[in-house]
Amino acid sequence: MIPESFKQDLLNRIDIVDVISRYVQLKKGGANYLGLCPFHNEKSPSFSVSPAKQFYHCFGCGVHGNAIGFLMAYTALGYVDDESGRRWSAVVRGDYVDGQTFPKLYATYDQGAALPIGHSSVWVRSAAGLSPGDPAMPFANFFFGGFGNNYVDHLDEKRYRAWYSFPGATLNEIGGRNFVKSALEWNLPPWRFRRAGIPAFYATWARPAVFVSALGTNLDAADARRTVTNAGGQIDFRFGVLSVLDLTLSVGGAMALERGHAPRREAMISLKILR
């Protein structure tokens, strides 16, 4: 935690106009300086910087603060996804079908690290599962395949991150009573659009990502074992509608490779209609 006394001493030594003018084109307007707000899309300047008060305020979106607050907000601009951290899950479930119970156990573990490039990160996503049921019974198997997005959707647009997803293969193409899966994902720096569209419908950002993964199923049965790899990418475009609603257009493609099989390719386009 930075001491408040240090922050105040720093503010006393710097000029807010000098700081903000490095990032925003400012023009003198009376006692203040005016420019286009970097925190929302606008065509007429509503972003005001006061050298007398050492304070900035946007009359369009309401953002305001001092020089330190501006730098913290501006350098965070572009953050659109988790850039580091860990998450895990462990699930025990059972399906009861025609008088039979089919138990399953699976777990996931994801770990990510930020890269020294603006809002870029690398994630390793792992999963494994086991079902003790009869492999001849469909409910005793895990199934994988496809991006998993619908043409019109309301769920997470990054469905390729799910443990059961495997872009490049067709939906539920790959099955097995047990599995191990690992994926490497690189989230590239997002693109922010300052002016793209009209006030009622405008683009705010685009988020590209690429990934590779490997999947092994039926590891305890050499005659039924499958090992599949894939590589692909996806880019998500976020649109604002009437400054209230968000739409996300996702476009992706992937190729799946497996020994003894021809390469399989998949293209995906999906529109997420809500956040």
Which features does this protein show?
275 residues; mainly beta; DNA Primase, Chain A; five-stranded antiparallel sheet; 18 strands; 9% helix; elongated
Describe the structure.
With 275 residues, the protein is mainly beta. The protein has 2 domains: 4-76, DNA Primase, Chain A (Alpha-Beta Complex); 85-272, no CATH class. Helix content is 9%, strand content 48%. It has helices at residues 4-13, 16-20, 67-76; strands at 27-29, 32-35, 47-50, 55-58, 64-65, 85-97, 100-114, 121-130, 142-144, 152-153, 174-176, 178-187, 191-192, 197-198, 201-217, 226-241, 245-258, 264-272. The strands form 3 sheets. Strands 6, 7, 8, 10, 12, 13, 14, 15, 16, 17 and 18 form an 11-stranded mixed beta sheet that branches. Strand 4 (55-58) and strand 5 (64-65) form a beta hairpin. The protein is elongated.
- Global outline: elongated
Radius of gyration, whole Å = 25 Å
Distance separating the two termini:
33 Å
Helix content: under 10%
Q: How many helical stretches?
A: 3
Order of helices and strands: HHEEEEEHEEEEEEEEEEEEE
Classify the secondary structure makeup into a structural class. mainly beta
Described by strand count, sense and barrel closure, the largest sheet is:
11 strands, mixed
Low-confidence runs (pLDDT<50, min 5 residues)?
none
Mean pLDDT: 88
Q: How is this structure best summarized?
A:
The chain has helices at 4-13, 16-20, 67-76; strands at residues 27-29, 32-35, 47-50, 55-58, 64-65, 85-97, 100-114, 121-130, 142-144, 152-153, 174-176, 178-187, 191-192, 197-198, 201-217, 226-241, 245-258, 264-272. It is mainly beta.
